[in-house]
Write the structure tokens for this entry.
Amino acid sequence: MRLHPFTSLTAAGSTAVITTAAASLPLSLTVIAGAAFLAAAGGAGRRMAPAAAGILVPLVLSLFILHGLFFPEGTSVLAQWGPARVTAEGLRFALERTAQLSASVLVLLLCSFTISVPDLVAALSARGVHARFAFVLASTLTLLPAISTRLARIRQAQEARGLVITGGVFRRLAAFRWQAIPLVLSLVEEAGTRAAALEARGFGNSGARTSYREVPDPPLQRRLRPVLLLAAAAAIAVRLWQPTAGA
Amino acid sequence: MAELTTPALAAGIESFTYPGDAAPVLDGVDLSLAAGTLTAVLGGSGSGKSTLGRLLAGWLLPGAGGTLTGFLDLGGTRLRFTGGAADPRINPGSWGRSVGFVPQDAAAALSTVRATVAEELAFGLENAGVERAAMAEAVRRTASQTSLAHLLDKDPATLSGGQLRRLAIGCAVISGPAVLVMDEPFASLDRSGAEDLADLVRNLVKDGTAVVVLSQRADDLLLDADSWLLLTGGTAAMAGTPAEVSAAGVLEAAGVVCPRQTAGSGILPPVCAAPVSGPPALELRHVSFAYEGKRRRAWAPATPEAAAPVLDGLSLSVAAGEIVAVTGSNGAGKSTLLRHLNGLLRPTAGSVLVNGRNIGGQPAGRVSGEVGLLFQQPRDQLFERTVEREVRFGLDRHRRRRLSAALGRPTANDHGVAADRAARQALDAVGLEHLAGRHPAELPASQQRLLALATVLARRPAVLALDEPTVALDGHGLAVLDRVVRQAAAEGTAVVLVTHDHDYARSIAHRLVHLDSGRLQSAG
């Protein structure tokens, strides 16, 4: 089933809120497993893995160092080095927080890697969101490939005139200084031309806009979204009234 | 064909000056475009054609974009400009609905944020708030008009040059403008692409659009134009029917290329007897190459098709002093072939030898001293702040290697002096020595092309690889190119040039080869 971008966003946001509010290890683990399964099934797993690792590894390490070694409430001491004590309670707390955080991060990453940006931009425009905002949102995806293509062209031009780029990452980074200024200048120059083109195509018009791209929004999904939002609100409410629930 | 009613667009430009410039770039240009007519604005590089086109199309706005004195008249509404603060202001959006523009670089007209060709076509209509059903109908009609119907679901970033130009035209005409201005629309199109485009233009004219083509070549289509306007140095030098302007014999002096100038001159005898002793200057042995994966955007599904080989066991041998022209249609892999000569691309099988030495495994920067490559797009090749710095880039390093070999241990001063001299000679050779302090981006396209050529010549390479060298060159530029290539060959440089321009290839090459399905065949 193709999800409307608002449904994807609502589902991801609500799941993250509910998992955080519930603070239940089994629920967090279920959500992690679900997100991993959906990412793999949807073919986004390989692209998502580096991003997930980049965000989660430092967070998880810091959680385990902080709570695993310094958890004042901990009584079952497993090991001790001076003021640092590894306690069973501390490790369990770090594990719970890790699972909770990983569940939210994975669910939101899954949403950002699978959502169709053109659909999102069209859906936002249809709801009257400002065209410039929608343009910036869409540009975030087109800008990086455009910059890397431009960079590769400049580098090739320089190599064709004797710039030797060899060796490891550091040498390549050092060689980037030759490309930085031409890259910025050419992007600025192109931005000027692009601005004229966009204005001539009526991008600056203040009147109402329409959208060519049709984003189907089935009735089931339309009804599902408020339910998800209500569930998220209810989870927060339960958490506030029963602060110890799930802990 | 011309009607004697109100012109769709008229301009009386007394002068137009860019901000910060002392001299006007346009000075005394009158133009009147009737519905259903084709007008060609001809002129050499730097004659003010592009400025005129952008001014007519609302891409360059009087006021912010420069100082205009004179008038613009769109559909009978006349706007007078005196260069003062009280001048009328043009709303580019509403002007753009009446006057469409296709810039020289067609990709610059696209929004870049639409996922398919259909959505890109509809972008202007969305901004005007057109209902979806009407948009769908307009997209369908425009796609069939511009032969894009089979590409509607494709990502615009994956289109070829010819398709991109048709898309830019589609974007410009979808709102049914009374006037369409096109800047060098035929540049770098092969023969079939140019014929398709000419048919499209004829149909637009037949349907009542006033079409203006800005060009430095009097292409076939333009011979049928209703009127020609010749620009020299920003001034209208002559206006009239194609026959009148041609008969006046002023086109060549203005730098306009007339195809018959180069047509049918036949293959010339070799500039020098090709030396057959010793290894050839350049040799490709059974070279195969395929791109690994197609470029795609993050949200586009991966294309499942396997990459077809662009070069398939291709062999070529070029002697010192020989000029070989490689012809082929757009997308045949000509540029890919040239990038193998200096190591920018590496063959998946086979080898490339320069002066008998295999360049495999060497970084392109090291091969550059022996093989000079002129890129297809000069803007891809130019990146420095001034013309002089552009030509000097990398010369110190290059000269150091050569001088070290020749003199033993030269001083840093020797390197600098030698590099200066080489840069000056190269600029002299292409006639740009008087522009040494200018910014490359400020130069007109033809001079940018010559500058790119100078950067290659300055290194005195043993092999000269030229990618579509005639594109963007006006008549004067072509004469320079011709002289430089012949001279380089006479001095023993092996020249490989790829071009879709058969006439040019026949006029300069000792040998013609045709690239098709990844292999070379003798073509004459």
